[in-house]
Amino acid sequence: MNRKDELIKLVSEIEEIKTYQKFEQAINSNKDLKKRFAELKSIQKQLVNAKAIQKSNAIKQFEDTYSELRNEFESEPLIETYLDLQNEINQLLIEVKEIIETEINKALSNDIFKSEN
Prior knowledge:
The protein is mainly alpha-helical. The chain folds into two domains: 27-75; 80-117. It has five helices and no strands. The protein has helices at 3-12, 15-28, 31-52, 56-74, 77-116. Helix 2 (15-28) packs across helix 5 (77-116). The chain is elongated and about 65 Å long.
């Protein structure tokens, strides 16, 4: 097993990630939430199109509708918990990335220092 696979295995064993995946499955199997998410995406596309053709009245209407639907959607307990977990995991992955970068930079600095001596 190479180091990439080891890292993937370690990350996939983190409890928050397992919980996140369970919530993701629950959301994906919830027809009402899927319908509401599709509605959000549709409004978002219409908003983008309205901005592209610079229809200011339509932009305002779509922004208001999108904001209202998004707030309702995100206030669903399942979605709220899912998004909180997503933020936690994103922070965790940022920390992992920073640790990897730091260790790589240390290794490179040591190699450069050794080759100069």
